[in-house]
Specification:
This protein has a five-stranded mixed sheet. By secondary structure, the protein is α+β, with helices and mostly antiparallel strands. Strand 2 and strand 3 form a beta hairpin. About 15% of the residues lie in helices and about 25% in strands. It has one domain.
Length: about 120
Amino acid sequence: MLNDASGFQHVYLCTGYTDLRKGIDGLISIVTGTFGLDPTEAGSIFLFCGRRNDRMKVLLYEGDGWLLCYKRFTDGRLQWPRSEKEARDLTPQQYRWLMEGLFIEQKNVIHKIKPELY
């Protein structure tokens, strides 16, 4: 379910450390209080990671109630951005990189160049 987020309009990565002992109400308060976002926005999921990078929680509002998912990776760790206290809206490619254990901001990207006309 979480390996493919193509069905969601917004995937918000809540950077920094989150106490994963928090439940639905605690995570809702982080989304609204800290990040100033609407957790009931249709098509949005919110990703949280604790100090250990091998597990994460996902918060989703389905219109009639809340869904809280917990994922623990059996082999590997997430490359979770820790430096800023913000919610980042990820692109589908960045989400795939995150779930594959890669950094969401690639340092060495090969850019396409336009051929120059002479």
